């Protein structure tokens, strides 16, 4: 990233922010980096999204515009350099949902209630035509990350062709049950570390949205799963039940069909996340993600209890080692 420093300085010079104080923000799992800029009591966020790290600011701009059109609160884009991968963004401050749930737990219900209302309102609109669909092929490709990264590391050998084919067959059968009707904009990473609390705004605008550039057209249950089955913080069964009940009461969706889709998408998402977290540890040396896998496994086990997931549950139980301490040590190459 230091090779991009001259480009960053040139961008800031061109837009009048060269004299700003720059503070690096905590990196996420992507190739993007962020800095908070302060200039004469004005704050902004610099997004650095290098193309050589497979990043691209254009989807962020496009999806952000869609979300704003729907009356939501993505950060305003104050300036941009699309060619070099820089955006100057509105600074939402420091009130991340996940942090506030720790420091001010009395706000948890209010914040999650508002976050669910965001989804209810968003899902009143059909998916925009310019969004790619969340297809069966995408579900299966993402689920395959479990086979590619988690399983070989924890069983100590490559996954056999037989086992791999069984997985392909069962996931294809299972995820084919996810309805493709009434698709909506799916942000895909709608969880407490990507949501900001903006109490001075009104209604659903109180939820500041981050990390939505990978949006697809998919099932309405997906982002609710992402919110309630959070990989990074514990959500109580009471919170999950109350928020699911709220969503169903405020939307016009068939409860039985929605809960089936919720369980199927939860299983798909959590299988994918276990694979991603294993990859982050093994390939990218981001060891802290291994500590999150047991929580994701608990979500997966709960999702698999739904009858629609019966065959997948049997296969996972028979073939995939749970993330015990010994298993997690293998992901960290600790003997």
Please specify the SSE layout and strand pairing.
Blueprint: H1 5-14, E1 21-24, E2 33-39, E3 42-48, H2 57-69, E4 77-81, E5 86-89, H3 97-103, H4 108-122, H5 136-143, H6 145-155, H7 161-175, E6 184-186, E7 195-197, E8 207-209, E9 216-218, H8 221-228, H9 237-250, H10 255-282, H11 293-303, H12 310-319, H13 325-331
Helix pairs in contact: 4-9, 5-7, 5-10, 6-10, 7-12, 8-10, 10-11
How much of the sequence is in beta strands?
5-15%
- Distance from N terminus to C terminus (CA atoms, Å) equals 33 Å
Q: What is the CATH architecture annotation of the largest domain?
A: Alpha-Beta Complex
Overall number of structural domains: 2
Q: Which secondary-structure class do the elements indicate?
A: alpha+beta
Query: For the CA atoms, what is the radius of gyration?
Result: 21 Å
Low-confidence stretches: none
Could you give the count of β-strands?
9
**Helical element count?**
13
Query: Superfamily at the CATH H level of the largest domain?
Result: Aminoglycoside phosphotransferase (APH), C-terminal lobe
